[in-house]
Amino acid sequence: MSLTITEECIYCDICRPACPNSAISAGDEFYVINPNLCTECVGHYDEPQCQQVCPVECIPLLPELAESKEKLWEKYTLITGSVVS
């Protein structure tokens, strides 16, 4: 998972309900993303929904943390119990 929430987060709670995998939760100072639950919306949407709804654009993709689409699909199937053909 290459998404992260930066300290620019204003704690508005718009991203949390937008996440189809419930990967976003409240941290001490800003929201955090659980890397075990984040699929970057693979399996649900074409683009990460947290990025789409964030009013301050504080959820960048970090290339150095990128996972392959195959790995994201694998995580999606484990989380949802779906079978991808």
List the helices and strands and how they pair.
Blueprint: H1 15-18, E1 24-26, E2 31-33, H2 49-53, H3 69-80
Antiparallel strand pairs: 1-2
Annotation keywords:
two-stranded antiparallel ribbon; 85 residues; 3 helices; Alpha-Beta Plaits; alpha+beta
Your description of this structure?
The protein is α+β, with helices and mostly antiparallel strands. It has one domain (about 15-80): 2-Layer Sandwich (Alpha-Beta Plaits), CATH 3.30.70.20. The protein has helices spanning about 15-20, 50-55, 70-80; strands at about 25, 30-35. The chain has a two-stranded antiparallel ribbon with strand order 1-2. Strand 1 and strand 2 (about 30-35) form a beta hairpin. The chain is globular. The relative contact order is 0.26.
Number of domains: 1
Shape: globular
Largest sheet strand order:
1-2
Report the total helices. 3
Low-confidence stretches: none
Helix vs. strand class: alpha+beta
Q: Outline the biggest β-sheet.
A: 2 strands, antiparallel
Q: Residue share in helices?
A: 10-25%
Gyration radius from CA atoms, angstroms:
12 Å
Terminus-to-terminus distance: 22 Å
Kindly estimate the percentage of residues that lie in beta strands according to DSSP: 5-15%
Corresponding CATH architecture: 2-Layer Sandwich
**What order do the helices and strands follow?**
HEEHH
CATH structural fold name: Alpha-Beta Plaits
What would the average pLDDT be, to the nearest integer?
94
Name of the CATH class: Alpha Beta
- The tally of beta strands, per DSSP, is 2
